[in-house]
Design a protein that fits this description.
The protein is of the alpha/beta class and 218 residues long. It contains 7 helices and 6 strands; from the N terminus they run αααβααβββααββ. Strand 3 and strand 4 form a beta hairpin. The chain starts with a helix and ends with a strand. The longest helix is centred in the first third of the chain and has 34 residues, at 2-35. The chain folds into 2 domains: 1-37; 52-217, no CATH class.
């Protein structure tokens, strides 16, 4: 009987040991999971990478950087026009950011909005050399990737593929529309004076198509 009593007492002790070992194992697994878990703030750059490319978020993050960069580097239109007509290549290298189809140049223009055609307005700048035509994209459609390419800091290698790279340009254009053009009625700009800061691709020295980053109507 003593043997049976001792055996009965030992059995529960073994069960408790198994339970304790099991609990310890669970604690170790939970600890390992916690150690390998990264807290990601919603909307942060890492969050964007985790979700995949988010054009709207990207545009909101990058347009202010483009605005600051272009505003700082913008060249007076008359000064730039004279430089471009004198030596297009030298002016592009001095003031612009190179792309495969020509340099993107930052410019500041003060003048008067002219006739509207589609999504553009002519823009007359006093003192510009004869024969130089300036047009400003005033929406609602904004075409091209000049804003994306204006700083030289956004490159194809930062994106998964060509589609994302193109979407990045569209996203920055869309954010510019919200920040810069949303308060303007493009149908009522003709005849109004303004200061425009923007960029254009230097292909034809006498034909500028400016994509704005800032428009101050007087």
């Amino acid at each position: 009987m003593n043997t049976q009593t001792q055996y009965a007492t030992a059995k529960p002790t073994g069960s408790k040991l198994k339970i304790a070992v099991g609990i310890a194992a669970v604690v170790i697994v939970i600890g390992a999971i916690a150690a390998d878990t990264k807290v990601v703030q919603i909307g942060s750059a890492h969050d964007v990478r985790e979700q995949g490319f988010q054009p709207e978020t990207y545009g909101a993050q990058e347009f202010p950087k483009v605005l600051a960069n272009v505003s700082q580097r913008a060249v007076d239109a008359v000064t730039l026009a004279n430089a471009v007509l004198a030596d297009k290549k030298a002016a592009g290298e001095k003031y612009g950011v190179a792309t495969s189809t020509g340099p993107v140049v930052p410019v500041t223009l003060t003048g008067t909005f002219g006739d509207r055609k589609a999504n553009l307005n002519d823009f007359k700048v006093e003192g510009m050399p004869d024969g130089v035509t300036v047009r400003v994209q005033t929406g609602p459609a904004i075409n091209g990737t000049d804003l994306r390419d204006a700083t030289g800091k956004i490159a194809f290698g930062q994106f998964t593929n060509q589609i994302e790279y193109q979407d990045a340009g569209s996203a920055i254009n869309n954010e510019m529309k919200k920040a810069t053009l949303a308060s303007l009625d493009p149908e009522k700009l003709t005849g109004k004076t303004a200061t425009v800061v923007g960029v254009f691709k230097l292909i034809n020295p006498k034909n500028w198509l400016v994509t704005p980053v800032k428009v101050d109507v007087k």
